Amino acid sequence: MTDMPLPPADADDRRAIKPVICYPNETLPKAPMALYQAARATATKVDEVLIPARDARCFEVPAGQFFRISSVEGPQVGDLNLWNSKDLSERFFSGKTRALHGTHITTGERMWTSFPTLRPMATIVEDTLGWYGIDAYGGSVHDVIGTRCDPYTGNLLAGDHYHYCCHSNLTRALAAHTGMSLQEAEPYVHDVLNVFMCTGFTRDTGQYFMKASPVRPGDYLEFFAEIDLLGALSACPGGDCSSEHSSDTAVCYPMLVEVFAPEKGALGDWKSPAINGYDRSHGVAG
Ligand SMILES: [Zn+2]
Q1: Is the confidence at residue 163, as pLDDT, over 80?
Q2: How far is the CA of 168 from the centre of ligand 1 (A)?
Q3: Dist. CA 29 → ligand 1 center (Å)
Q4: More confident site: 12 or 240
Q5: Cα-to-centroid distance, 20 and ligand 1 (Å)
Q6: Does the predicted TM-score (pTM) go above 0.85?
Q7: What is the CB neighbour count within 10 angstroms for residue 242?
Q8: Helical H runs in 102-146?
Q9: How far is the CA of 164 from the centre of ligand 1 (A)?
Q10: Which of 11-15, 123-127, 241-245 has the lowest mean pLDDT?
């Protein structure tokens, strides 16, 4: 171990430099929210899936339809994975979504796909927790900073073998839905959108924290499907994430996913976003 290095004479000046935003997002294509709202007004429910507590289920949403994740019965956090239903290699990219929109996402912001497609896959059209903002601890709702609770980290930290973490729940659900084995399905499970979870980073140590979710039964988060989607949602074993996860200790509740289809023609000539325009030559002349 080395001792903490002594600060240089101009340490305070260096610390006082103002930050710049890594990815100014004013040039991101804006979601046509008025069109989505008009289409949503014509929509009727075509499917619903109840996610049991401490378990996960898959659901499919064709491009141009809407899906809503609701709190039912009690405060509960959900871990969401999304894939292109026709090509599971195209999936949600939590890290780049965070870089583009910030640590938590809400109405008008989007879930982006992995490289090389990097395009919007779902747009948030309604968030009943949109009032929460950023609290005095720096906490906010619906984060793209957590990864998902998983049995490997639990084993690393405590040596245990807990089987109902979101990672395992999502793996079982994807395997059951697609017919893949657990071993085939597991690598498709990826970093999540933490639906309803209230999180942030501590200012003193920079550690990832969680606190009791402000979600109550009746609250929901609703999305527009930009591409054909396969989704999987896990009702996290952390419940409202007020104390602990990765165990059977917390009180957990089911969650509801509903799918809504707008009337034919309600989206006009809307089309799924094109895949990313980069030419992929990576500096090698063609
Ligand atoms: Zn979890």
Answers
A1: yes
A2: 9
A3: 32
A4: 12
A5: 33
A6: yes
A7: 15
A8: none
A9: 8
A10: 241-245
- Please report whether residue 129 resides in a domain: yes
What mean pLDDT is predicted for residues 151-159?
Answer: 94
Question: Is the pLDDT assigned to residue 1 strictly greater than 70?
Answer: no
With contact defined as beta carbons under 8 Å apart, do 118 and 93 qualify?
yes
Q: Find the 245 Cα to ligand 1 centroid distance in Å.
A: 7
**Distance in Å, CA 47 to ligand 1 centroid:** 25
Give the Cα separation of 143 and 101 in Å (integer). Answer: 11
Q: Which position has the higher pLDDT, 184 or 26?
A: 184
Q: What is the pLDDT of residue 86?
A: 98
State the distance from the centre of ligand 1 to the C-alpha of 208, rounded, in angstroms.
Answer: 14
Between the CA of 3 and the centroid of ligand 1 the distance, in Å, is 37
- Residue 239 resides in a domain: yes
Segments forming the whole domain that contains residue 169 = 44-261
Beta strands in the chain (DSSP E): 44-51, 56-61, 66-71, 78-84, 87-91, 110-112, 120-127, 140-143, 193-201, 208-211, 220-225, 229-235, 255-261
Residue 285 belongs to a domain: no
Ligand 1: distance of its center to the CA of 28 in Å?
A: 31
SS3 of 220, please?
A: strand
Q: How far is the CA of 169 from the centre of ligand 1 (A)?
A: 9
Centre of ligand 1 to C-alpha 241, Å, is 9
Residue 153: pLDDT over 90: yes
pLDDT of residue 3: 85
Let me know if residue 116 belongs to a domain.
yes
How many separate domains does the chain show?
1
Q: pLDDT for 59-92, tens place per residue? A: 999 999 999 999 999 999 999 999 999 999 999 9
